[in-house]
Every structure is written in structure tokens, then in C-alpha cells.
Amino acid sequence: MRIIGVYNIKGGVGKTATAVNLAFLSAQEGHRTLIWDLDPQAAATFYLRVKPKIKGGSRKMFRGKRELDGLIKGTDFENLDLLPAEFSYRNMDLMLSERKKPARQLLRLLRPLSEQFDNVILDCPPNISLVSENIFRAADALLIPTIPGTLSIRAYHQLLDYLRENKVRGVDLMPFFSMVDRDKHLQAEVMQDMTASNPEMLSARIPYDGDVEKMGIHRAPVGEFAPQTNAWEAYRALWAEVVQRLK
Amino acid sequence: MSTNAPEFRLSGAHALAGIESALKSEFRLEEESETRFDHVYYDSFDWRLYQAGAYLRREFEKDRRHLIMSGLGDDSPKESVAFTGDMPRFYWDFPESVLKENISDILDIRALLPLFELRGVSRSFRMLDDARKTVLRVQLKQGSTYDAQGRMGTHVDGIVRLVPVRGYEKFLRKVSRFLTAEMELVAVTGSLFDELLASIGKVPSDYSSKLDFWFTPDMYSEAVARHIHLHLLDTIESNIPGTRDDLDSEFLHDLRVAVRRTRSALTQIKGVFPEDVVERFKPRLGWLGQITGPTRDMHVYLLAFEEYRDSLPERYRRDLDPLHRFLLVHQRTEHEKMVKQMESEEFLQTLADWRSYLVSPDPGASALPNTRSAVSETAGKRIYKIYSRVLDEGLAITDESPPESLHELRKNCKKLRYLIEFYRSIYPEKDVKPAIRALKILLDNLGLFQDLEVQALKLQEFAHQMGKEGEVPPDTLLAMGMLVDGLMKRQHQARHRFGQRFALFADKENRDHFKRMFSQGKVKQAA
Asked: Which fold would CATH assign to domain A2-246?
């Protein structure tokens, strides 16, 4: 079972769209895939038409009273299941801190699922918290959607500092450019600089595209309602590169 | 990832359309796809998957090829793997996967053969809730079965399959209830696989190389003998096509074992067939063994080749490649020669004559001493006689005895084993088992001793033959020499262990056991 986190300290960078579209691609390839929506806004849950509710409540789940197994919901797509988010996730930090080894709770909860799933994709809430630390410790790879701009570069460096200071090792960092607007010259310059100084940058780029926006209307991954589009091509390229890097 | 997927089966040409419209009027269904499917079901000739409680099917759906292994009880898929190219025939042809690991233990060296094909159309519907979320999938299938020769078996008029979506099981219960209560359908509990097999006239486990007789102690000896022989003849004949087409090496192996058992039964079961009949068929049946020997030899070396190669240090392994090529070429030529013989008048007539003798009454037999005796009287006597011979011969063997004395002992042990196996059902199973086990330990030792010698000699023979047929690299001959050396060493070890193995076989407890069973006739009591 591979665990892939999709994360950025900043919000609004195309994180949930990435998580949902890549999970769909993984499932289409025949991998048994789980997407865990950890963001209290529950956008991934909404995209996949599942009610943002956890039976028995999330506190019970973190206490280990309810196994994740019984909380998982099938989506409309073969091989793709979802562990929904609910609004109480906004208190997740608190719930985690009540536990022993608070930074390793996600991994503990995910471990029993290793026989059931090949890929688990975590849609993570923005900002640095105990939740994100859990994610860093559980994930094999961290996908970091980055809007080409000076603030994003700063956010990425903040993350690198944090990981170094907290001795988080063994997670493969995969930043990539998201919401790329070809008409903005400044973006092109930023991308060039950032790629030069960060060789771990993936080369696939996700465009700023109306089709991605429409996921909220169709409540489905882009590949389901607009498979012959630039946006979908970009996600496919991104997934192929991620798979290659994970090998 | 689905849990249990209940299935309902319909009969009648228009039943499926009726169910479709009933479901649509009651629930919110949206058609998802319509696909043609083509499923071919496989097992080995001796039903190894079926025996292990499973079956394997190859699915062609759209452009995807999958192998899926399912459980017999509920048709639930256990493992699957995608593949490209030709259908894998042996487990080693499978793509690396859990399925490969599991199937390798079950199939071993047997090939997968097609049992039948199910072709048809599958339509898939999503059932939606108020948020248009898919909460259940309904599959409607219809098709036909075809046997391995492409002849149609039966129409499958309709299958309704409910595939639950995880976390939405209440919708599954709702639709299940509707189908059973309103539409009066009954959820199927038996396996579809069994039904499909029956539809093309296949009986599972209709072949096994194991002897499984059900004789009672009071049966006439002659009737029992004929039954044994007819069973063995069936085994020989049912293995001929697979041997001819070289589907896997076990066809020939089983055929040869059946021939050996036949020859042994012919001479060891005394006083039920006239002497002239025995004398007439002995050489003809012996010939069946002879013409199939060389091909079997090649199979043995090819099957053992990897083990041979791995027994050498890494740097010498490639030197055996010319030997491997030699074996492959000769396996083919020997096989062709054998097939010609098998298609000859002599071969066919031998089997036909033998069958015709076995199924017709022989007036000459009634004058023989044992024909009308109960098998309980004749079997034990004969077994005990051969057992005593084995004991005498074995006890006479010392460290100085020549190898031939061990080979001779092995022959008699085999006769003994065959006899016990033929008559096993007239004795209490709990008593037969230890007798066979004791004999098997001894036979394994003697078999190893002789096989290793034969293999070493044969390898020498191959080396000479390879030289005659063309240049052989000296490194190859050296590597073969190392193999011979290894075999001889192992043979020496086997010889060394013989004394201890035989002592175990001949200890007082075993001797008493054999005596009680076969000399004092401890047969099963009539129920």
C-alpha cells in the first residue's frame, strides 16, 4: 500500500482537484484506491457525491473505537473508495493530541487497510499543524501543488525548513506547478527559477482551466466528464510522473 | 472491494427484459454500459483447481484481459491479474502476482486447459439516490456456453447481479427484497460454475490418477480384477490425447503409471485369468511401456534441469546450456517417434483387444482356482506372500551387496504397493494407511538410489551422443561431469541410509501389523 499526501501550507492551490483526479486515474489503472478527505471543508467528499458525515463521529474514530474499515464509502467509480470528511475535522488537532504518539495516529489507523488498498491518497488541510505532521510521517510521497508566484516559493521553503527541523525523513517531496496561466509572463520566470533551484520539481504542469472548475458542477473527476481536454491530459501526465518517481 | 454480490437467475427468453422494466419503474436506474463479454474457464486435466475449491476464468472485456480466480462456493473473486499476449498455460507463464503464487502450489507442473466458454452481453446500471450518487450497481447478463470444441451448450437466459457499493448496503437489501418479494426470484446459493459445467456435460473431478476403488470383501476375485484392469485401461486411454498433443508431461506420466500397474496386476493377481491370456498380453502391454520410455526420460531431465543447474556453482551454470538444447531437441524427436507408434495399428489393436477381453466373459476362467473366491481370501494371501519376499530379500542385503539386489527389492516393493493400493478398500482405512506409509518410506529410498544411478548413467550417455552429433564445448562436458559426480554422491548417501530405512520397515511392530492385516485377513466387516 502506497500513501500519497497532497498538501500545501497555502490553501486554494488546486489541492483537492489534484487528489480527486489522481485517485481516479489510479483506480482506472486497476489499483484499489482510497481517497481520505482530511479537510474539514470536505471538498473531495462533495466532488464524489458522498455525505460529509462519519458514522459515530470523528472523535470515536481517532480513539480507535471505530475501525476505518466500516466508515469507508464506495464512490461512483470502480476501485475508488472514499473516507469522507466532516466538519468536526476542524478539531482534529485536538483529537490527535489526546492520543499517545500523536504524530503517528494516521499511520496507525491506515495500517489495517494495507491488504485492501494499493494506493491511498490523502487530501490534506492547508497550514502546518499536528494533522500535517501526521501526514508527513504517514506518506511515502508528498505532492505539493504550487502556484507559480513568489509567495508559493516562500511557502515551499517554509515547508522544507519545517521538515528539516522536525527530522521528518523518508517522504519523497514532489512539488509541481498548479493553476498555471500561460499568459502571465511573471509565472514563466518564477517557474524557470524554481525548477533550476529545486530539481525535485515534477515537470508536469496543471493549467488554470475552466474544466477543472467544472468538477464542482459535475461532482466528478475531470476525466469522467471531459476526458479529451488539456486539463485531463495534464493530470494524466502528472500521475504518470508520480508513478514513475515512486518506482 | 465489494462484499457479497447476490445473484438471481431467470429462465425464459423475455424474462430479463421484464425484470429490467420492473426495476426501472421502482428505482432510479441509469444505464452505465453495455459490453460483450467472453469468459473462458480453465482447470488442469485432473481438476486441481476444482479440488482446491476454486476455478479460473479468463475475461475479455473491451480491450482488457484478466485472469480471475474465484471460490467455488459463492463465485466470489479471490485474486486477479491483468495479462497481455497469449493465455498462460503453466503457472510460470503468469505475470508476477499473488495469483501466480497461489496457483503455483495448486497446479504444480500441470497445464491449464479450457473447460468451456461463456459468451454474451452484460449491461450495467447504476442505481442513484437523491444526490445522484451511485448506491448500487445492477448487472443484467445473458449469454451461451460453448464447450472446448466450440459446440454450444446452453443459453443462459438471464442473470441479475447486484453489486453493492461500500457503505450503501441498505440499498442492496432494498433491491434484494424487491426482487424476492415482488418479482418472486430466488437468490442463487449454488455456484454458477457448477451449473455451467453441467450445461456442457462436464462432470467435475471425472479424472484422477489416484486409485479409488470401492470393493467389498465378499466380491468375486475375478470381478474385482476385471474392474481394476478396466479402470487402468480407462486411465491409459484418457491420457492418450494429452500425451499425443504434449499438453503437459503428466499425461504421459499417468499413462505410464497405469501401464505399469496393469502389467503388475496382470501377473500378480493370480488364478483369475487363464495362463495363455496372461502370456499373450504380457509382452504387448510391456511394449506400451517401452515405446513411451524415451520421451518420459527427456521429460524427467527437462523437469529436473533447473535443479541440476542450480546444484552447480554459479560460474558453471551457463555451461549446461548446450545440454538443455540437446534435451529440447531430443524431447521433440522422441515425442514424434512415440506419437507415430501410438497411432500404429499395433498400439490401437493392443488396447482394443485388451478391452474386448476384459468386457467379455471368459468361459476358460471358470475352471481357474480363484475366480469365484472372495477377494478377501485371495488379496491378503497374495499381498502377504509378496511382503514375505520383500522381507527375505531385504534382510539378505548387506553393505557389500551389489546395487542390483536393491533394484530387485525395489521391484518387489512396487508390486507390493500396487497390490495394497488395488485392494485398499476392503481393509479398514486406519489400518491400510500405516502399512502404505511404512512401505513408502522404504520405496522412496530405493527409488532415489536407482533413479540417481540411472540419471548419472544417462548423462554419460548424453555426453557421448552430443559428441557424435557435433562439437560439444569442453566446459559443457566438464559441467556435466560435475553433475554426474553430484548424482553419484547423492546415490551413495541413499545407499548409506538404506539399512536404517529397511530396519524401520522390518521392525516388529510393522511385521505384526502386516501379519494381522494380510495373513490373518483383517478385512472390513460387512455393514
From this structure: Rossmann fold (3.40.50)
